[in-house]
Amino acid sequence: MDESTLNDTTNNTTNNPESETSSESADTAPAVRKRRLVASSSGDKPGAPEPEAAAPAPPEAASRPQTRRRRASPAPDKAKAKAEPKPKAKAQPKAKAVSKKAESELAKPSPPGVPPPARKPQIGDTRPSPQAGESEGTTGRRRRRRGGRGRGGRGRSEGAGTPTTDNRNGSHAPVEAILADQSPVELDDEQLSERRGQYRNGKPLGRYRMCVHVAEGATHISVLEGRSLIEYYVSRPSDDISEIYGNLYLGRVRRVLPGMEAAFVDIGTPKQAVLYRGDLTVAYDDSDEDASPERKRTGGRRGRTVDGPAISELIRNGQTIMCQVIKNPIGHKGARLTTEVSLPGRFVVLIPGSSVTGISRRLPTRERRRLRGLLAKEIPEGFGVILRTAAENVTAAEIRRDIERLTRQWTQISELAERSEAPALLFREPELAVRIIREQFTADFREVVIDDPVLFEQVKGYMEAVAAPLVDRIRYYDPVAERLPLFERVHVAEQVRKATDRKVWLPSGGSLIIEHTEALTVIDVNTGRNVGRSSLNETLFQNNLEAATEIAKQLRLRDIGGIIIVDFVDMDDKRQREQLMSTLNEALARDKTRTATEPISDMGIVQMTRMRTGEGLLESMSDPCDVCEGRGIQLRESLFS
Fold first, then answer.
1. pLDDT-derived band of residue 371, with 50, 70 and 90 as boundaries?
2. In what order do the strands lie in the sheet with 503-505?
3. C-alpha pair distances (Å), 594 with each of 245, 386, 553, 610
4. Which end of the chain is less congested by CB atoms within 10 angstroms, N or C?
């Protein structure tokens, strides 16, 4: 029973006193009317035949309540004479025939929206029937609750749609990501051994370990390298508004700003999203000699463009466009959009309406050459395909199945977009835990530990369909049997607390001070307790090398994005500064999030940018202070008096 049906039953029982009588079977309803009529007619004899008035009144009688009351108003003698049964021999068989006919009609199910005769409290002529408007009002209220505005009768029972989508599009629930719908691909022994990874004494080996803890109201995902925490994510059920990265929307352009080369788009979220000119794909025709016929995207930071048509020439106010979120809303800023849609799978990323092909640069050169040959035969017409890092050692059948799954998913999204009205959610990415496992889980992971049985079965079923050799690396953690929470067992809780501190200690005694501002993040490197052994230059150089490695780790762990300024301890030797930058870039290369660094200045300052997709760890784990509004200070009001 869905929520709307439950509300209907409760309201009808409360508002209508006759609902208990009407809930009985259709066979018993006429008998109740007969007994009440005999009891109300004191002049009838026990052996007299039942009058025809005992049969249920026809449906037309409910529409004429005023006429019936005028007929019941004559003198008592005339009313009694009319109530006397006519002495006809065939009256009783006729009454029985009418009664049987009425019972058969009452036993039939009534069509939806039409009130059945048995539900009307028509007891007899001595009691006036209810007003037609009241009966219609009750029926109308129930019909509005079942299929009324914002529900459509099927909106909540079929799928998990967001409130925004259900309220605006009725039964059009968004398309969910197809995780596992087929049996796994059969692999030979050689392929299984390559895909299963390394084992020692029957236990899997790997550099990383993932732990997923499902708490009340939030899901925590931690990635450890050895025993050191390197990534941490928090997902909440309310993140359908704040955590919408990767979702597809049918948006409506509300305002085009030519001076900013951007447009505000309504996608159904509390804050309107922004679409920059550089994130707007343009279809060039074949007559353009300087451009290829495929879709192109131009622009850099903030979508600034150098050439091509202006944004006011490409879109207009009130226009409906399909767009994808590439950055979550942060603070007072709305989400950032792009019209170049991409659907991520386990091994490939499908780009509809494009001819782009690519292979992950993290794969070895020999593997890239092999995958390039397989990809040339599997690219569908009208789509672009990019192979991910997880595609290492996969077969052509696995790539083909992943492409077919994403193509079928795109067909569903396109069909939903045709029958939806903007703004509407068209496609929702799976929950964060499944998404991270889909994108990161490879043979480099020793294991994935999950302490929720429902999520464990979901992840296991998905991996059985797309990566069966890695299924035995997924393990369920029973906190009751282990007698200790998962994060306390793997020593994650204390590392998370340290990751939110302002000060970070280095192994040799130095420290980092991390300060967040509105425009950028500043990291100051200090020697602290590090006094060195041989010389000042060597002490400063070693301290900066430790700081470079730790900075790359903290950026990844805290998920710090935007502009980052690092103030290293000043060094005079140019070769030492070059070696420091090499160490920093090498440490940043382990991070999958794109970063860009500028050469170190003579004053030891490094400018860098890191792609931001959402709130950082500190913002997701804390709330600003109501007193100081996050500034960390409280003014002395006595000095202002």
1. very high
2. 503-505, 511-516, 520-526, 562-567, 605-610, 595-597
3. 16, 17, 14, 6
4. C
Integer Cα distance of 404 and 336 in angstroms: 29
Q: Mean pLDDT over residues 465-475, rounded?
A: 89
The residue count of the chain comes to 641
Tell me the two tokens of residue 169: 């599009």
Please tell me whether residue 197 adopts helix, strand or coil conformation.
coil
**pLDDT tens, residue by residue, 487-505:** 988 889 889 999 999 999 9
State how far the Cα of 638 lies from the Cα of 633, in Å rounded to an integer.
Answer: 15
Q: What pLDDT was estimated at residue 295?
A: 41
Is residue 254 within 8 A of residue 265, CB to CB? The reply is yes
The CA distance from 446 to 204, in Å, is 6
What's the rounded Cα separation, in Å, for the pair 307 and 283? 14
Structure tokens at 266: 């309504």
Q: List phi, psi (to 5°) of 33.
A: -65, -40
User: Would you state the structure tokens that stand for residue 558, as one six-digit string?
Assistant: 């805290």
Task: Specify the pLDDT at position 411.
Answer: 94
Q: Phi first, then psi: give them for residue 218, nearest 5 degrees.
A: -160, 155
Q: Is the peptide bond before 270 cis (omega within 30 degrees of 0)?
A: no
Which residues, including other chains, have CB under 8 Å from residue 294's CB and lie 6 or more apart? 284, 354, 355, 356
Collect all residues with Cβ–Cβ distance below 8 Å to 417 and sequence separation of at least 6: 250, 322, 424, 426
Q: How far is Cα 425 from Cα 6, in angstroms, rounded to an integer?
A: 27
Q: Residue 569: how many CA atoms within 13 Å on its side-chain side?
A: 23
DSSP string, 473-532: GEEE--HHHHTS-HHHHTT-HHHHHHHTSSEEE-TTS-EEEEEE-SSEEEEEEE-TT---
Q: b or e along 581-606 (b: 16 or more beta carbons within 10 Å of the residue's beta carbon)? A: bebbeebbeebeeebebeebeeebeb
Average pLDDT, the chain: 75
Helix (H, G, I), strand (E, B) or coil at 199: strand
Helical spans, DSSP H, in 234-302: 239-242
The pLDDT of residue 519 is 83
Spatial separation of the C-alpha atoms in residues 453 and 105, rounded to whole Å: 52
**Residue 354: other Cβ atoms inside 10 A:** 20
Contact 316, 256 (CB under 8 A): yes
Cα of first residue to Cα of last residue in the chain, in angstroms, is 63
Nearest Cα to Cα of residue 29 among 102, 95, 108, 96:
102
pLDDT at 551: 96
Angle at which helix 365-378 crosses helix 396-418, to 10 degrees, equals 50
Cα gap 20→322, rounded to integer Å: 51
Using CA atoms, how far apart are residues 455 and 27, in angstroms rounded to an integer? 50
How many other CB atoms are found less than 10 A from the CB of residue 254?
15
Q: With 80 as the cut, is the pLDDT of residue 311 above it?
A: yes
Q: How far apart are CA 186 and CA 179, in angstroms?
A: 18
Structure tokens at 254: 């509300």
